[in-house]
Specification:
Layout: H1 2-17, E1 23-24, E2 36-44, E3 47-55, E4 60-68, E5 73-81, E6 88-89, H2 104-113
Antiparallel strand pairs: 1-2, 2-3, 3-4, 4-5, 5-6
């Protein structure tokens, strides 16, 4: 009985820190609506680790970002083409960036932090 309660608690903890795959990200620029999808969102230590895809006519781009919802800043830490498994994580994560209104990163940050 106690194992059942532990298993339920672990399952709920995992679900509460992750967003299930392929949630459509609403975009300010309407020509991109229906082309950006959240694949995963895992929160650890106040930072969201997000993977999303951008579906275009010739390819699908998979991007990995760290988002700090407290500051509203992000940094892109990886990218891959046509497969989530092809994401290459950058060795240098770079600086935290403030997203620019109208840019796709702005929409991803806004959606993640809502």
């Amino acid at each position: 009985m106690i194992y059942k309660h532990i298993l339920i608690a672990i399952t709920l903890a995992i679900i509460s820190t992750s967003v299930l795959a392929d949630k459509k990200i609403p975009m300010i620029d309407k020509k991109y609506n229906g082309k950006y999808f959240l694949i995963s969102n895992k929160k650890k230590g106040g930072i969201n680790l997000v993977i999303y895809k951008s579906v275009f006519s010739t390819e699908t781009v998979y991007s990995k970002m760290e988002i700090n919802c407290s500051t509203g800043k992000y940094r892109k830490i990886g990218e891959g083409i046509n497969s989530e498994s092809d994401i290459t994580t950058y060795t240098d994560k770079g600086s935290w960036i403030e997203p620019i209104y109208g840019a796709s990163h702005y929409d991803v940050v806004k959606f993640t932090c809502k």
